[in-house]
# Entry
Amino acid sequence: MDNDGYRVAVVGATGQVGTLMLELLREREFPAAEIVAFASERSIGKQLEHGLRVQGLSDESIEGFDLALFSAGGSTSGEWAPRFVQAGATVIDNSSRWRMQADVPLVVSEVNPQALDSHRGIIANPNCSTMQMVVALAPLHDEAGIERLVVSTYQAVSGSGKRAVDELLDQSHSLLHEREIEPPGAYAHQIAFNALPHAGSFADGEDHTDEERKLINETRKILDDQSIAISATCVRVPVVNGHSEAVNVQTREQLSPERARELLAAAPGVIVLDDPSNALYPLAIDATGKDEVFVGRIRRDPGHERALDMWIVADNLRKGAATNAVQLAELLHERGLAGAKGAPSAA
Ligand SMILES: NC(=O)c1ccc[n+]([C@@H]2O[C@H](COP(=O)([O-])OP(=O)(O)OC[C@H]3O[C@@H](n4cnc5c(N)ncnc54)[C@H](OP(=O)(O)O)[C@@H]3O)[C@@H](O)[C@H]2O)c1
# Structure
């Protein structure tokens, strides 16, 4: 960082998450002297807001950055994140490429900021469904110890990129006008007016999607507790933006719904909306555009004396991706941790 601020690269700047990261860096007045937008070769030269022009990734163009925020998919991160680190930057990566690597911290700003201290150049931003869930679960885990989670997600199509949003809108439009839909492209089946028990993809022979595995593995890594038993079903629903989750939380110690509500109301980044008799509970359309995680329907599980049920909602593009990435950049700045510290081992 020079006296004027950091040189920041945003890789994937034309995408949904990248566009929001650019917006948030400005909105939150991140001390950047210069922001440079990168995307694929298709977008080189494209004009973005605030006079930014998209650049292509090359050995020369990645020189001289303090920070690089990536949201351009796993293969771009796999290839270019280590090169940015070698060129002197600290990378905050939104893809799944580096998340489970032992020497890469997986960090949620409100939950485990201390994990940043050990970074070796790359810091991973968790998967969107995991992110919002752990923000709400960490205060309960600290108080009563989580033994087991049963999670069902209701995930918006924006979690699959711009193409999926277009596909939901196109299919809905066609069906409402009694026209045949194009063959599905973003998903295995029609998403409009449907629910797909298939968020993510099934590897050969796997009975869980990669999204379900991420929810399980990333939650344990962030909460630093491999003993938590987790069952996950990730469902894609025809919602444009905002992921919802029904979560059954079984704790080791007794935890009443009242105490859980109290802990959550005091937790950073959480807003409790819980008055069901007045139809007050978190909704995806209300969470959209907000940076907090919303929790409601907090109640005793009648089937288990040490379990609670709750409904957790957040904007998957904001807290689930861009907001947390920018919050991590702010924490790196506050702790004097931006700038390369080596590189994670190759994996
Ligand atoms: N959407 C979510 O809720 C969410 C949440 C957490 C994490 N993420 C992760 O964030 C990443 C982006 O998601 P998104 O929803 O923003 O996707 P998106 O809207 O499809 O945008 C993808 C971005 O990546 C760029 N890109 C693609 N290939 C590239 C390449 N070879 N080199 C450089 N840039 C390249 C694209 O540039 P062009 O415009 O030039 O193609 C675009 O800027 C993914 O890794 C995703 O898993 C997404």
Notes: The helical segments are 16-27, 74-86, 128-144, 162-176, 210-223, 257-266, 284-287, 318-334. The pocket of NAP is lined by residues 12-18, 39-40, 42-43, 57, 71-73, 76, 94-95, 128, 158-159, 161-162, 316-317, 320-321 (CB under 6 Å). The chain has a mean pLDDT of 96. The longest strand covers residues 146-155.
